[in-house]
């Protein structure tokens, strides 16, 4: 394939300071380093983490100025001289983990996301809210040719994240998994992965629209927190003793605390959502007597990425997406802050 023509400038959404103006404007196209791919980003999912990066409310400083985004799906158009195993025209994905040292204890054990020198797309490395972005060739996701790039974009963070969380819950086919925050961007994918993995799925969220989506995605029992007068009791009854595993993608501290009470004895509470400054509280006597586990699950590694993408490629997982122009990102963030998003927004970088 002949080398594509790469422009000098491109459209992007960038901000100069945390919480500052989100500017849709022309910026230079980056030049890939020796170990990097240059990817022509076609679509990028919009994640709640992108909102935190913009606001700067996590205890990890962002690169400034910053182009956010870490669910970018596109085409390789250039690469550094040390890159192997890729070719121009390949489909590639930009993930939250852009790169790591590959030499420390964590990287040796395939826990690259815990690397002290991890480079994070849309946080410490300019991300996918631009038409051309760079990605470490080792960590970039390999997307099969012919894949719908808009549909696959959310898999690159939301999909991989919930798939890893479900693996971390240590539950077996036929057992109950409760998903707190079931019909947002993460939860809507968690429902499908859980169903494909053979689990019985209970979802907690609010409103008729989300109840309808939950059923459409294959969920079994929906608990509407806006209507339930006893969420813990309702879940214990519905599951005949509690969920074997809980995936907390909700950013409500109260919802996280409640999950420690409706998880089954010997079950696992998995923390995924990252509400700024929140704590997970569990009453110690009950925690010990019921022998429950509380674990944190961060983003998946390269194997998790491959496996999560395979579920998508086989048609077992579908992203419930709304496609919008990249220039609409400020409005999308506003809806996200107000909790008005059902499913996942994906931005088209050409608009």
Summarize this structure as a short list of keywords or feature phrases.
single chain; 351 residues; 26% helix; 27% strand; globular
Polypeptide structure, described:
There is one protein chain. By secondary structure, this protein is of the alpha/beta class. The protein has eleven helices and 18 strands. Strands 3, 5, 6, 9, 10, 17 and 18 form a seven-stranded mixed β-sheet that branches. Helix 4 (158-168) packs across helix 5 and helix 7 (231-238) packs parallel to helix 8. It starts with 8 loop residues before the first strand and ends with a strand.
Layout of helices and strands:
Layout: E1 9-15, E2 23-28, E3 36-45, H1 48-55, E4 66-67, E5 72-79, E6 91-94, E7 97-99, H2 105-108, E8 119-120, E9 132-136, E10 141-143, H3 149-152, H4 158-168, E11 176-180, H5 185-196, E12 200-205, H6 208-216, E13 221-224, H7 231-238, E14 243-248, H8 253-262, E15 263-271, H9 284-289, E16 293-296, H10 302-313, E17 321-325, H11 329-337, E18 344-348
Helix pairs in contact: 4-5, 4-10, 7-8
Quick overview of this protein structure:
By secondary structure, this protein is an alpha/beta fold.
């Amino acid at each position: 394939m002949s080398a594509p023509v790469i422009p000098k400038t491109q459209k992007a959404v960038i901000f100069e300071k945390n919480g500052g103006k989100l500017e849709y404007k022309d910026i230079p196209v980056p030049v890939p380093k020796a170990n990097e791919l240059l990817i022509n980003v076609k679509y990028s999912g919009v994640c709640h983490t992108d909102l935190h990066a913009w606001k700067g409310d996590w205890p990890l400083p962002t690169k400034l100025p910053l182009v956010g985004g870490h669910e970018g799906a596109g085409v390789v158009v250039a690469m550094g001289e040390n890159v192997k195993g890729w070719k121009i025209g390949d489909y590639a994905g930009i993930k939250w983990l852009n790169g790591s040292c590959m030499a420390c204890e964590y990287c040796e054990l395939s826990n690259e996301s815990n690397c002290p020198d991890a480079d994070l797309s849309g946080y410490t490395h300019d991300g996918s809210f631009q038409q051309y972005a760079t990605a470490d060739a080792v960590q970039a996701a390999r997307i099969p040719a012919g894949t719908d790039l808009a549909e696959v974009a959310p898999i690159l963070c939301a999909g991989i994240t919930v798939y890893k969380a479900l693996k971390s819950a240590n539950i077996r086919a036929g057992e109950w998994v409760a998903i707190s925050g079931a019909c947002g961007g993460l939860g809507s994918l968690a429902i499908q992965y859980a169903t494909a993995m053979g689990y019985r799925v209970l979802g907690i969220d609010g409103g008729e629209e989300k109840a309808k989506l939950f059923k459409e995605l294959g969920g079994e029992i929906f608990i509407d927190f806006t209507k339930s007068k006893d969420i813990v009791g309702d879940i214990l009854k519905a599951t005949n003793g509690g969920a074997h595993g809980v995936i907390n993608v909700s950013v409500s501290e109260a919802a996280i605390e409640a999950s420690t009470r409706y998880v089954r004895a010997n079950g696992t509470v998995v923390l995924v959502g990252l509400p700024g400054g929140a704590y997970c509280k569990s009453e110690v006597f009950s925690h010990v007597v019921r022998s429950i586990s509380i674990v944190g699950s961060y983003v998946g590694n390269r194997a998790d990425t491959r496996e999560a993408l395979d579920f998508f490629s086989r048609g077992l997982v579908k992203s419930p997406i709304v496609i919008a122009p990249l220039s609409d990102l400020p409005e999308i963030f506003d809806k996200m802050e107000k909790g008005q998003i059902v499913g996942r927004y994906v931005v088209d970088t050409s608009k």
